[in-house]
């Protein structure tokens, strides 16, 4: 007779953020937990639905601790706001100034960032031999900071960061250069010139999402020799990827970052090694069902 559901070890976690009804993270955690023999329960704590803002974070973390949550993921607008409420930060979370995973253990709150490692793992799998001499990144927000960190860890020699807010791009480039060395990251000034010299392009803006259709740069700046990566995964084929593929560019969809950040969080919450391939397949099923 198979083990009854109630006798399995419990695994309770959640996601704190605003407007998170469409997130696939709960389903990925619950499915992987079930296969691993856990009573996996992953709840959305949607600030918009609850009528709260980031000022309620401490209250929500206290509640999660009292209810026995193994941890919570946090997303917009909480990735920076949560930091003063934590007891400890991983080296990566401290360097990035952003947290997306909080482990709750023995009365302590420990912040991690699995966004950067999620992008890095997706890149290693999807574009393992891609040239990394010069890369252009568009978008210097929270996700952009994680992706830029990942790109430099992956060995990109020179990263040109562009953003509609030039000051934000400059601050990110300065922080990256301080960690990785002078010249490794610069704030871009001439997008066309940078694209002429680039091996690859990463879009870290919301442009391409269903509610923000379009391209993050003029299509004439693309050429067949480029590789093009996305972090948007609704839809999986953004207009940028469609145009790039039509030109013959190698491309990387945004789903990898979404899956592998969840892989990292699952590992931190449970101490169990998830099956990343299985989680990727489940993610594809979930996206296909949308």
Automatic annotation (TrEMBL):
Pathway per the UniProt entry: Metabolic intermediate biosynthesis; chorismate biosynthesis; chorismate from D-erythrose 4-phosphate and phosphoenolpyruvate: step 4/7
Keywords annotated in UniProt: Amino-acid biosynthesis, Aromatic amino acid biosynthesis, NADP, Oxidoreductase
Gene3D superfamilies with a match to the protein in the record: Leucine Dehydrogenase, chain A, domain 1 (3.40.50.10860), NAD(P)-binding Rossmann-like Domain (3.40.50.720)
Pfam family membership, one: Shikimate_dh_N
Chain ranges of the Shikimate dehydrogenase substrate binding N-terminal domain: 15-102
Binding of NADP(+), residues: 139-143, 231, 254
Positions bound to shikimate: 23-25, 75, 100, 115, 233, 261
Record flagged with keyword NADP: yes
UniProt GO molecular function: shikimate 3-dehydrogenase (NADP+) activity
NCBIfam families: PRK00258.3-3, PRK12549.1
Family under the similarity heading: Belongs to the shikimate dehydrogenase family.
Role of this protein: Involved in the biosynthesis of the chorismate, which leads to the biosynthesis of aromatic amino acids. Catalyzes the reversible NADPH linked reduction of 3-dehydroshikimate (DHSA) to yield shikimate (SA).
PANTHER family: BIFUNCTIONAL 3-DEHYDROQUINATE DEHYDRATASE_SHIKIMATE DEHYDROGENASE, CHLOROPLASTIC (PTHR21089:SF1), SHIKIMATE DEHYDROGENASE (PTHR21089)
Protein name from the UniProt record: Shikimate dehydrogenase (NADP(+))
Organism encoding this protein: Belnapia arida
